[in-house]
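Anyone? Bumping this.
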Amino acid sequence: MRSKTRQFTQAASAELQNERSRRFLSNFPHLFLVRREAALATFSDPQEAQDYAASIRREAVARLPLLLEEFERNASARGARVLWARDAEEACNLVVKMARERGIVYTAKGKSMLTEEIGLNEALEEEGVEVFETDLGEFIAQQLKRPPFHIVGPAINVPLEEIRDIFLAKAGLLEPTLDPVKLGYAARLFLRDKFHHLRLGITGVNMAIAETGGIVNVENEGNIRLAKGVAPTQISLMSIDKVVPTFSDALFLLRMLCRNCTGQKISSYVTFDHGPRRPGDVDGPDELIIIIVDNGRSDFYPDAKLRDALRCIRCGACLNICPIYGKIGGYPYGFAYSGPIGQILNPLLLGFEQTRDLYHACTLCGACRSVCPAGIDHPGLLVYYRCLEVERKNTGTMKVSGRGLLFALLAFGLSKRGRLDLGVKLLRSWVGDKIRDGKPGGLGRFLGGWLRKRDLPPLARKTFAERWKDISNR
Amino acid sequence: MNRVSLFIPCTVDLLLPEVGVASYQILKGLGLAVDYHREQTCCGQIFFNAGYWGRAARLAKHFLKVFGEDEFIVSPSGSCVSMVRHHYPRLLEGEAAWLRLAQEVSLRIFELSQFLVDVLKITDLGASYAGKVAYHESCHILRALAVSEQPKRLIRSTAGAELVPLAGATDCCGFGGEFALDFPDISEAMIQTKADKFIASQADLLVLSEPGCLLNIGGYLKRNHPGRKAIHLACLLARPGEG
Amino acid sequence: MGRKERGKEKDSRNLILNRLRSSVSEVCPARGVRPGLADPPWTGEELIDLFLKNLADLAVPVYRVKDYQGALSALSEIAEGEGWKKIVASTDPVISALPLKEWGRDKAVEVFYPGDSAGDDACRKVLFEEAEAGISGVDYALAESGTLVLLHNRHQPRLVSLAPPSHVALVPASSLLAVYEELAGRIFFPEGDPPAQVTFITGPSMTADIQMTLFRGMHGPRNLIVVFIEAL
């Protein structure tokens, strides 16, 4: 997928002007959170449950290579073919090649963030393989050529009129309608025909179980089940971080994933695949191919802090609670992953240079961390990215900004009380009374956008330190 | 205990000194001896958050030198307390002696309302305010320090004050230090929502206990809703004339 | 696949694993006790009540019957109500004990077993276009979330419970378990080969992808109906 992370600020401002987006965002994330809380209340101690889920993810990431090998061994023993891909290109090439070898003209896909990340659709289409996204939200986003608005509901914001128009043009909708159910039904009919004659089903993987060699898919629509039930060839792609130690761990995480995601106890369908169909089975794929994709993850794995980014289970709770996502929605993040987890993952996958806005556009409020079932410390990581950025600037591998010089000056001024007092005096003589009305004249240019809609209190006539003598002697 | 050491964050020192004075008056009014170390400057949070960890570590050491001996350190800023409590140990993890000191100090530093309610076990300071009050739950106070009930109890015990519910009280106000300067469009949208909800709450006064939020919310109200005010909890609770 | 590609693939595998291996250092703290759901363990009637309550929350209609005779009556009622002409059925142990063919003749409902004509186009056509319902048994049912568990094999095709617009599941009381973890020893045992696919079904197919409006029957069945058989 081509990234547009550099346009973050621009795209965010556009979304802030979009009345529809604003109205939509003022309702829906909150609704998910309310449902989430109710669903978590089915645990005798919800926090304990969250912590336990986090400990599973922590262990999975800590033991990653061992678990991957165990998974590969067991999956192979069940008859699955396990392949590995270092990067997006290699992963796409593997799929394209297998599609070509099997004479595939079209494929139906289950929703998979990894395939968005590696740009699989584009790679297949380039080779003449038509791709149908079959998750309703992904299907709409694909028709409209839009990035996902939310990692769980990719097109949940799209107005009915737009869906009507695109379905009339491209998805066999016969009569114009604004009824969401009728629109959904039109997509069902259109895609059902694709499923009926499907030769290659492509899915993502929610979890891979090391202990049993199985892969798990979680869904509500049944499109993944169809893709895996009909086609003779099933290709399931997983990033290296999807592996969990045991079947019981997978079941526990399943509870947490669904509760944190949609507020369901469990989604409508969960499937566990162990190899292709057995002799005599009526349906199911003749071959199950699992592609384990690295795509840059092993590059940052050695850093024990960055490694925590691999804990994510893609529930989307951090998006729903993020006050910034709640204002701008998913588009500005410019890549497969949006919201706080996008701010964590996109810089690691795309590099810091082109994602600077993502790891700076955060107030560090910590709401995301407070709901994360994987125990990710998002604000802690973002601040660490900023630290790595500064280190790179110091070693000359990234450009130094004027802000950096300001910080240097500030740090010098704050390093000793005497310097601070001197600084206050200098500032007073420079700014004088200009700051009195809350608009500090020439100082404004150091204050970025602060003053557009806000006042700033004037520099105190007497700082607290200066007042101390009067106060304490009273 | 009879001594506390006052830690006045740089924002309070330079821009909001009345918050420092009020904090002093509250503690003094309770009969405590209040120390103020003239050498203190800044906890280093702005540097830490912006990624300048080296500079932040130097300020951390300065802070530890200044406050290292104190039995109780009290501050009217939750984010600065969280900086000292949670991030100093992280910043200094490679230097054993400093790390040990940071860990000790982390146990002795308290946000003002937490100190009053949890340590001193005081919920009624004899303050009064006639009117409806809403409370904004600042992110660091609520999530990093898990302090939420304490300030509300102090407000409830204020004579004449009625604590009214505030929709989205736990939503971030959009300050975030550098964030507000670098992403003004998003920050303004956030503070606007906060202000709208405060106005919808029908409260006369918005009380909070974080200087950063006060600069943001107070500055926004002053420009856009001059009749509405936000104040620091310390200023609500202090009774001038004491101390 | 040529030798060169095979070699390259092996390279990727080893490269990724070696890179990861060289930096495994973290010592994993022991995990605590797996936290439980509120108020288990459930037993007997309690277990059934919870299962049925969860189904009710999902708006899944339930026919609670004594035995196979009762199950057939329930099927008749459903068939009549829905106006079934043609259905597909699994041949799993629960269903195979049911005289479905005779029942169908009696009710003028054609009963089709996909297992009879493995995988051919005609079979696919029946499943996707003709059958109005799929009837299956279940291997287990899970009270904690109202979930049905199907182990797919030659007697339990994947598409019976998926492709037609309705799915009627016959759930023997004896298949009911309290929580997910109880499945582990039943599906995976040291020497055994687990089925190629295990499916958890909880409610009908649905989506809320368009403006959060709930739509049942997105790709799978619009209706899930449970016939709960007490004496089995």
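Late reply, but here is one note on the structure posted above: Strands of chain B lie at 3-6, 33-35, 73-75, 109-111, 128-135, 159-163, 205-208, 229-232.
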